[in-house]
Amino acid sequence: GGLAVAYFRTGQNDPELLEQSATLMSRAMFMRPEHAATWRSKAGIALSRENFRSARSYTEKCLEVTGKDKQCLLWHAQALLGLGLLDEAGSWLSRREEALPKHSGTQILMGRVALLQGRYGAAQEALEPIRKTEPEHALAWKLLAELFYRAGDLTEARTAAEHAVALNPNFVELRLLHARLMLQVEGATREALQKLSGLTEVEGLKGELRSRVYLSASHAARANERFEEAVEYANQSLEGREGWGPGKLALAMAYAG
């Protein structure tokens, strides 16, 4: 079990080490299922793979053993959110706030849940301290940019997004948000199209993120009256998601000019 935990901690960005950790953890669970660390580490691996259903099950088992493991309490809420159970995740966090780990990861998750629930004041209360204590926390700046955008403060939103991109220029979600904000600024549509065209060339884009990148690129192309490009980007947004409403609407708008 200890070796598996070590592999997990050192190999979170290494698929091969994660696989070794998963194998070792499976053996450890068979031998010592009463150890919370076994289930905690297994939950962490599942979350890193975005396997939220398994993460939920493992955190439940972890909490059955201890009842108050701080990391499992937090990761359980993260698993619920990943499964789309927003209200359940919010309720879980609010009822256990005092027992959660006292670090930025907790504040990030609480801010994200509050943001998705439309509780902008609570979201800002959770995220603002991170801006001061960890000014290089790119994810916190991204969430603040989304918060300001939803609250209608485009100037603050763009400033936060620019700061986040400067901190982590390889974070596609950040670059997409920044470009979308630029589309809202008069005179910046050409630069937004350039940024979004660059994003469509990023290797490994897939699923919903890929669709959203191409959708935004279609809107930017149409804003620049480049309608053939807008049609092409809209079609690309629908690849593998033929019935996706936003993509179909973007395609119709691109054809209409």
What does the model show?
By secondary structure, the protein is an all-alpha fold. 75% of the residues lie in helices and 0% in strands. It has 15 helices and no strands. Helix 2 packs antiparallel against helix 3 (36-48) and helix 8 (120-133) packs antiparallel against helix 9 (138-150). The longest helix has 17 residues, at 15-31.
Q: Which features would summarize this protein structure in a list?
A:
257 residues, mainly alpha, globular, disordered N terminus
Which secondary structure elements does this structure contain, and how are they paired or packed?
Layout: H1 2-10, H2 15-31, H3 36-48, H4 52-66, H5 70-82, H6 86-95, H7 104-116, H8 120-133, H9 138-150, H10 154-167, H11 172-183, H12 189-199, H13 207-223, H14 227-237, H15 245-256
Helix pairs in contact: 1-2, 2-3, 3-4, 3-5, 4-5, 5-6, 6-7, 7-8, 7-9, 8-9, 9-10, 10-11, 11-12, 11-13, 12-13, 13-14, 13-15, 14-15
